[in-house]
Design brief:
Helices cover 12% and strands 45% of the residues. The protein is mostly beta strands. The strands form 8 sheets. Strands 2, 5, 8, 10, 11, 12, 13, 14, 15 and 16 form a 10-stranded mixed β-sheet that branches.
Length: 425
């Protein structure tokens, strides 16, 4: 099979082909000439910045221009083609000349004018027009207002909580947000909140991030673009913790080693409280400890104390009972006065010496009658501990503690001080 060869010479002798070819060439030449003709056909320069500048007096009065509707404009120019084709957005600026007459806050429509920047000294062209022809500018004083972030968490109407868990108050990674912008618009903001819908029964701590929303006094949402939030989102945690009822436990310090206090001798009111906390913590918590009671404060006449409930930092007191009343039954205990003349200094630096000026102390001993009746002053030693005053020299007054011999169920009631001096050898 032979392939016919097309002869270009014959094509040009074809009247129909010659007509179509001439028409296409004419259109292309017209397009080229018109695109190159920047005297009659202006060239569009896009993305030219709009600059709106207030007078010095207006700026001194605190006025400033906030977001205008259009940030850039398109400028149409004409002139010498060699020059016009070199012009770009940096060679032009669009200004609002009437902005210099503004003296008060308002929203202004400002006529726009294009000017040459003279950065490259390109002068052989002229501005034909600007698009848009005007910009809407918000002029006001700058204002900031700080709000506590409100919680708008919603639960379904048929939501059923699990009684085995405690759902706490949501905590935020930021509790406040600052709204800034034009004074008039900022004043319209009444509150800032986040929204979230709970869809399932909460059985574990819920963490999420939520967008912040501004509201006016009528609870309408504000979406004004001239307003700025210092943070746009907030991290939220809804704590969900297992709950349990635990007994309260009395704790004592300086308790005599031989003294046994059974449950019948100690009364605690209330006996139990409800607690919420991490499962790992509650698993190792058989009772809630109370703040320690010092036996030196305890006597048959002073045997009832209001003490703080002490919980691990990760737990919550759901009963909202911060204190408990601890009462000890000290029936069968007696009181006796004994004069102490034996003094001992502990933890004195080897290069120092101490002199005690207090020669005797009249102290109160409490314990079982048969035990304290046999005590003499030889059974008591007053001890002054200098471990917290290792660098001290001079005369001072310090507290003392007591050691009792042959009295394992007795203790010294009250606080006592001695005078002494410490000097270097």
């Amino acid at each position: 099979m032979k392939i016919k060869k097309i002869s270009l010479d014959k094509l040009f002798y074809n009247n129909k082909f010659a007509l179509i070819f001439s028409l296409v060439i004419s259109i292309l030449l017209w397009l080229f000439v018109t695109s190159a003709d920047t005297e009659d056909h202006p060239r569009a320069i896009t993305n030219v910045p709009i600059e709106i500048t207030l007078s010095d007096a207006a700026q001194a009065d605190g006025l400033r221009v906030f977001n205008s509707v259009d940030q850039t404009a398109t400028v149409y120019i004409k002139g010498n083609s060699l020059v016009v084709n070199q012009v770009n957005a940096s060679d032009l600026k669009v200004v609002a000349l009437s902005a210099s007459a503004i003296t008060s806050p308002n929203t202004y429509p400002l006529v726009l004018t294009a000017q040459k920047t003279d950065k490259r000294n390109l002068t052989a062209f002229s501005v034909v027009s600007v698009s848009p022809e005007q910009a809407i500018a918000v002029v006001d004083r700058y204002k900031e207002k700080t709000f506590q972030i409100q919680n708008l968490i919603q639960y379904p109407d048929d939501y059923k909580s699990d009684p085995s868990f405690f759902v706490g108050t949501p905590t935020l990674d930021n509790n406040t947000v600052t709204v800034s912008g034009p004074e008039k618009q900022v004043q319209q903001v009444n509150r800032v909140a986040f929204e979230y819908k709970v869809t399932e029964t909460l059985k574990e701590t819920k963490n999420f991030t939520a967008d912040l929303v501004m509201y006016d006094a009528n609870d309408n949402k504000i979406t004004d673009s001239s307003l700025t939030l210092s943070i746009k989102q907030v991290g939220v945690s809804i704590p969900v913790l297992p709950r349990e009822v635990l007994p309260l436990d009395a704790v004592f310090t300086n308790k005599p080693a031989g003294l046994s206090l059974g449950s019948s001798k100690i009364s605690i009111d209330p006996k139990n409280i409800e607690v919420a906390g991490p499962a790992s913590v509650l698993a190792n918590l058989s009772a809630v400890s109370l703040a320690p009671i010092d036996f030196s404060k305890l006597s048959p006449a002073t045997n009832s104390f209001e003490v703080d409930v002490s919980l691990p930092s990760t737990c919550r007191n759901l009963s909202n009972i911060p204190t408990a009343r601890v009462t000890l039954d000290l029936s069968g205990f007696s009181t006796r006065k004994i004069t102490v003349t034996n003094f001992k200094v502990k933890n004195l630096s080897p290069e120092k010496k101490a002199q005690i000026y207090t020669k005797k102390l009249n102290v109160t001993i409490i314990g079982p009658e048969e035990e304290i009746s046999k005590l003499t002053e030889n059974n008591l030693v007053a001890e002054i501990d200098l471990s917290d005053n290792s660098n001290f020299t001079g005369h001072t007054e310090l507290p003392v503690t007591f050691s009792l011999s042959n009295a394992s169920s007795s203790w010294v009631y009250g606080d006592y001080m001695v005078n002494l001096s410490v000097s270097g050898e």
